[in-house]
């Protein structure tokens, strides 16, 4: 039934690699690194994944990533994800990671950077999956720290495809991070930012205007501001929407009530993504299938959104052309 959805050459633009940590690997890495988990079993971990909102998820997300210590841990994490992504028919992935969440635990830059970059190289040769790396800043921490972290990452600047902004959105407006995004832009590194997930439409406007981001992660609350919708639509700003994530974090009560159809009807540049698949009940294909079931979208609808993602990806032009041709 879903063979045709699997076959579409999908690009995943909104993925937190730390959010791909399945409970089985969490336990294996805890054993490897001598970390004690507050759970008895894999089933107990899964049972804890019942979230009220974004902050209640983030607590478990930061706790879970506490098992990641070495370069090999990050490599194994990403390779496990790439193997699942391949099964979903994903051909390009933009991995976001949160260096600050590792630095505060005493895990140096080298571990995530070198582990993830090695996995990205391996995914290209083993699975023909291309990738990009997005270094994200935590918006609920000091903007000065983000700037410092960006400068500390200088040896890897050439390996960073974009900077991002994530973590708890409410009461953490994006404009405070204008300086670090400007610094990145001056070095030719574009920006993306989470906005309008739990925060208001005004945060989308602010991320776009003050941070000059080229994509908005989530962005679903833009519908509260029709003038903004018109501007985003005219400018073809991509929204990396994550339907199963939004249901799990109660941005909407059910998928049937999700604003995705309204976003598309408003002419917005919508893409589909999984966000934190290990926590939100599914990867790219699950998100595609769930939308097919909830909205009755046709093959042409999915081709349209898959094309949007390929066009919005940080990807070599030659590869983009080849993948777009496979969609035609
Ligand atoms: N929103 C904000 N920050 C995040 C998320 C999310 O869904 N996942 C990981 N960090
Ligand atoms: Zn996200």
UniProtKB/TrEMBL annotation:
Broadest EC class assigned to this enzyme: hydrolase
Alphabetical UniProt keywords: Hydrolase, Metal-binding, Nucleotide metabolism, Zinc
Site (Important for catalytic activity): 218
Catalysed reactions, as listed in the record: adenine + H2O + H(+) = hypoxanthine + NH4(+)
Record's function text: Catalyzes the hydrolytic deamination of adenine to hypoxanthine. Plays an important role in the purine salvage pathway and in nitrogen catabolism.
Record NCBIfam families: aden_deam (TIGR01430), PRK09358.1-6 (NF006850)
Protein name stated in the entry: Adenine deaminase
Species this chain originates from: Chromohalobacter moromii
